[in-house]
Design a protein that fits this description.
With 573 residues, the protein is of the alpha/beta class. The chain contains 19 helices and 21 strands.
């Protein structure tokens, strides 16, 4: 009854609620400027929380609370959703996830192509053998078991995941360049259904990398169809962001149309100087598809440089079978010569990010081999010059010596395009990085500044300083919009009955400090973060609480009406 009264008060934003008893709330955020996630005008008011739910949003809340937070002079908003998190491993080491928690992130969404399950024994063995700075035991097989494992260990933020199309493919086919038989494709589809009914949010792909690049469109349609009939979406690092950007967007739209599943483009960009002017045509394709009724969206990070490996500088055929076979082939002189010829080609058959950035624009940030770590912070051009070899030879040698793909930053994007994209109404945001801290094993490698500043940079640079979009609109695109795209019905808004994920920050002071030279610097300006009704960040510092939970998709069989349906059309979108 008291909750019902509170809901009425929230709806009216006025009126007397003196009948509510004192000590009604567990937590009360007083006197802030409330941005409720709708994109509408903010208002001065309170947010009251009982247990893990919001019970009141409006003018001065009636009653008192066990705990109050004074938010005068600050913005109060829904927690931010990171649409592309690589915190899969980092949260196993440090569940606080400080670099993102301190920016107001309350939900980490993982699964870009690769997910932490379903894994068979061969996949587990590969994962253990290929681990980098962070070491961990694998005590799970399914994606659901992994997410439950994270929650049981304790995390500050909520966690969710897509099931990786690459993971499903590798589970059945291995890492080679092969096509599935009808029977194998049926097995792959069944793995997707199982993951969806365990709570996955959809299917994620990453099509520039081997073995994902070996998947043809029909295979992806099949997997996306299962995601769609299970109430989820198809989300993709599309097959090209440069030379074949438009064709790659066409493929994503085709997959959405044929499968019935909504589709999102991971980190939309026009990559490489020769392709910067393709953004107009790319946006036109997306708008045309949306005008036809397809739910096509995108997300992005707020920097003009990407970060991935040197595998994105070499043809995918040489990488078939996994990193060990890739390295073995590179040691063969004839194969090496063929790879170098393709790396230098003006019309490569693969997504050559190093060519788009140039060796001077390829920054080395992460090595597995301790002997190579002193090269961190140098460009590929510098290493090639120091060794007296070509950039292509240097890249190949580094992969062989490190026994990994080597993590790099590619400076390949136009800042004007990045700024323009932030204002697109259907754009959400993802860091494409792990949540970490400048301590322990995280200091063994460098990183991209997006790991520490992606969301704060949006609010500081593009909202406050450049006024590319309003704060209310930015909050909507950090919260309600991604929650809607993911099918989450009780997160992403400050509204009575919703889960209590709340951020308190100072719009005048919020600031990213991470740079490409010194990326491991926390953002500032966020004072409090509430996750499921508990303070995970208080006065700018993490608390001892680990209130994060697994957030599950619509087909989770734990829901009252869970389970997959006949087709995507059987769901409301």
């Amino acid at each position: 009854m008291r909750t019902a009264v509170a809901v009425v008060c929230a709806a009216l934003l006025a009126g007397s609620c003196a009948s509510l008893p004192a000590e009604r709330y567990d937590l009360l955020v007083r006197g802030g400027t409330v941005y409720d996630g709708s994109g509408g005008a903010p208002f001065a008011g309170d947010v009251a929380i009982a247990g893990d739910r919001i019970v009141y949003v409006g003018p001065r809340a009636p009653g008192t609370a066990a705990r109050e937070v004074d938010a005068r002079g600050q913005a109060v908003s829904p927690g931010f959703i990171n649409m592309l998190s690589w915190s899969n491993e980092s949260l196993l080491h440090d569940g606080r996830g400080q670099s993102e928690l301190r920016q107001g992130v309350t939900l980490e969404v993982m699964g870009e192509g690769n997910s932490m399950g379903p894994w068979n024994e061969a996949q587990k063995a590969n994962e253990v053998r290929r681990q980098g700075d962070i070491k961990y035991d694998i005590a799970w097989s399914s994606l659901d078991q992994y997410l439950r494992h994270l929650e049981a260990r304790g995390v500050s933020m909520n966690v969710a995941s897509f099931v990786g199309a690459t993971t499903v493919r590798t589970h059945i086919l291995g890492e080679g360049d092969v096509d599935p038989s009808p029977e194998q494709l049926a097995q792959m589809r069944a793995l997707v259904v199982q993951a969806m009914e365990d709570g996955a949010l959809g299917v994620g792909s990453s099509l520039i990398y081997a073995p994902a690049s070996f998947a043809e469109t029909d295979e992806l349609v099949a997997l996306a169809s299962e995601a769609g009939r299970c109430g989820g979406i198809y989300i993709s690092h599309i097959r090209s962001e440069g030379a074949r950007l438009l064709e790659a967007i066409d493929e994503l739209i085709e997959i959405s149309r044929r499968s019935g599943a909504p589709a999102e483009i991971y980190h939309l960009k026009a990559s490489g100087r020769a392709h910067w002017d393709k953004l107009d045509a790319a946006l036109a394709r997306i708008e045309a598809a949306r005008a036809q009724g397809l739910r096509i969206t995108a997300d992005m990070y707020t920097y003009p440089a990407s970060s991935t490996g040197l595998d994105a500088a070499m043809p995918t055929w040489v990488q078939a079978g996994g990193v060990e076979q890739w390295i073995a082939r590179l040691k063969d002189p004839a194969t090496r010569a063929g790879v170098i010829a393709e790396m230098r080609s003006g019309t490569p058959t693969f997504e050559n990010l190093q060519r788009g950035a140039g060796p001077e624009g390829t920054l080395l940030v992460g090595f597995k081999n301790p002997k190579l770590k002193p090269l961190t912070g140098k460009t590929l051009a510098q290493v090639a010059k120091d060794r007296g070899v070509s950039p292509e030879d240097a890249a190949i040698d580094l992969v062989i010596e490190d026994g990994s793909r080597v993590q790099v930053v590619y400076f390949s994007m136009l800042e004007a395009n990045v700024a323009r994209q932030t204002a697109l109404p259907w754009m959400s945001f993802g860091s494409d990085a792990e949540a970490q801290a400048p301590e322990g094993p995280f200091l063994l490698s460098s990183t991209h500044p997006r790991a520490y500043g992606n969301f704060s940079r949006l609010l500081a640079k593009y909202v406050r300083d450049e006024k590319r979009l309003t704060l209310a609109e930015a909050v909507r695109k950090l919260s309600a919009q991604p929650a809607h795209n993911l099918g989450l019905t009780d997160r992403g808004r400050l509204r009575a009955g919703y889960m209590a994920d709340v951020v308190i920050f100072d719009p005048a002071r919020i600031q990213d400090h991470a740079t490409f030279e010194k990326p491991q610097q926390f953002a500032t300006g966020v004072s409090h973060v509430v996750v499921n009704g508990q303070l995970a960040l208080e006065n700018g510092e993490p608390t001892a609480a680990r209130p994060g939970r697994v957030v599950r998709g619509r087909a989770w069989t734990g829901w009252k009406n869970g389970g997959c349906r006949g087709t995507a059309a059987d769901w409301s979108w």
